[in-house]
Amino acid sequence: MTLSIDFIDETDQLTDEQIAQIQAILNIAANREEVEGGSEVSVTFVSNDRIREINRDYRHKDQPTDVISFALEELGEDEIEIVGTDIPRILGDIIISVERAKEQAEEYNHSFSRELGFLALHGFLHLLGYDHIEKEDETEMVQRQKEILDEYGLTRD
Asked: Do residues 84 and 130 lie in contact, with contact meaning Cβ atoms separated by under 8 Å?
């Protein structure tokens, strides 16, 4: 079972290998989480300025961040769930700041590719409903991230 992933690199900085790595990691996560094959997600790579705008406009935080997820399956007020259709499951959008990923890779002393993989996975798990506001939820999310990254072979070292 594979995801349908739409990659958009607004920065023109990512390599085909980095995109393939993210695709593989997200597919491992989708399989582990039993996400239906053909489900759709988009991953967009942006500048700090662009993610700051998005963070300000949608989260009311006027600062750049590393990753933002927009889950399309979360129902808003006055929205109803569509069930019983043959359309693919549309999970949502993941937006990653390439600049922040580079900064954090240096800060955490690991590769840029590892940081990109981590951020994409982190955003993907948010789309599936994982969160880290409460300590118990954070522990579960961190453990899940570690398991998936380890399975892919992308460790912190």
From this structure: no
Angle between helix axes 98-108 and 48-59 (nearest 10 degrees) is 100
Cα 109 to the center of its chain, rounded Å: 21
> 141 Cβ partners below 8 Å, 6+ apart?
122, 125, 130, 131, 132
* Residues 142, 131 contacting (CB under 8 angstroms): no
> What pLDDT is attached to residue 133?
87
β-strands 90-97, 67-71: how paired? antiparallel
Is the per-residue pLDDT at 114 higher than 50? Answer: yes
* 14: its two tokens: 């990512």
Q: Residue 88 is encoded by which pair of tokens? A: 């693919």
In the chain, which ranges are E strands? 4-9, 40-46, 67-71, 90-97
**Tokens representing 87?**
């359309």
pLDDT reported for residue 83: 54
4-76+84-152 to CATH, choices 3.40.390.30, 3.40.50.300, 3.60.21.10, 3.100.10.10: 3.40.390.30
